Amino acid sequence: MNAVTRTNLEVIPLTKHIGAELRGLDLSKPLNEADVAAINKAWLDHIVILFRGQTLSQEDQLRLTAYFGEVGELGRPPKFFPPGFNKILPRIMMISNIRENGEPIGALPDGEMMFHHDMIHHQKPHNGTLLYSLEIPSHGGDTLFASGYAAYDTLDPVLRASLEGKRARHHYNYGSTQRGDGKGTEAFAESVHPIFRTHEQTGRKAMYVNRLMTVGIEGMPDEEAKPILEKLFDHSEKAEFIYTHKWKVGDVLLWDNRCSTHARTDFPDTERRLMLRTTVAGTVIPR
Q1: What is the pLDDT of residues 262-285, one digit of tens each?
Q2: Is 287 part of a structural domain of the chain?
Q3: Which of 106, 122, 131, 159 could potentially form a cystine with 94 if both were Cys, beta carbons 3.0 to 4.6 Å apart?
Q4: Total domain count for the chain?
């Protein structure tokens, strides 16, 4: 019998284009080869995979992340790793609005966020992001995921052909131009990547621009690029391409940044939200 078939994993699709819940595994324990192969296949097939009701240590989360590739460095300042959560630096980051002495203990603390790809502003964007929920507000703070495959496959063929081989410029500065509400994380970086990215493992093409960070098209005047990008953003965020995740404590969610964007809804700033984040490292994207 093929080893991959010897697993109790149950894969339940969440929408037509993106997302699947995986049942039957306790992620606090090391997985066998068959389970590792099965969860990797589910990730590539469904882009976003969800495990409910997990209880993980930091070591467990790092081990789980490593099943999908090299664990990525986070590139965040030490203040996001306060005592009690900083045993293993710099691989685990807190996403939280909890404040101590008036300062958030985690990154990306407040409010909604527009659709984006994690780390697209770097020359080596991370392949995946994993979030483990420890505290959640009574409502809000949902995460929306949109399939870049579906966006590419259904894009107007004339527009798609005109953009094949072109690259877009991406800019990260949450604290000023990209958000403008004073709640962003102060950081700055820029990059240039293909508008349509070919996934290294599946061979499929996906839309690889987003409303939050993409600011232009290489070699094109901004006044010409802006309406084109707006069309791409609007198309990629169509409701039929999206899975909306409503968090519960103990959720573990992994998404593929190579072929999806995600956004966050607002939530009460008077209620605590705490997630632990790890990433799967990536490589330079071919032109």
Answers
A1: 999 999 999 999 999 999 999 999
A2: no
A3: 106
A4: 1
